[in-house]
Specification:
single chain, Immunoglobulin-like, alpha+beta, 147 residues, seven-stranded antiparallel β-sheet
Length: 147
Amino acid sequence: MKKILLYSLSLWILAILFAGCSAKGNQGLMNDDWNQNLGKTQKIEVQSGDKAKTITDHKEIEDFIGKLEIDNWELAEIPSDAEEEYQYTLFQEDTRQFGKAKSDQLELKEIANIITYRDLPYLKLRMENFTLSFAVPEHVAEFINQS
């Protein structure tokens, strides 16, 4: 009985050690999840002041998501003097419910909101019930603020 308990305890300790050592490796998986989820976007509404435009072309949306370079974002606090510039609202088709016909047209629902800041390499990402602030590479900030 003691051997079984000792063996089980040893396995748990090893599992914890390996999980802790691979935490940095999981960062890539998390970024892949972000890219994959945002990659399901079917419409992007861009707004700045009284100007607005809508992107619905799949290739344009795919290019936009790729140029965001989510893998290079770092959590950061947005400076207090930051001035909002653009707001991107991303939409995708709602999940199909069991029993609904495939031909039923589903409405697009908002999945994310990205807010950029004038002349600063920061952005705010809102998804569902949380908001995160990021520092982004300069070239990403330039791209996202020229739409």
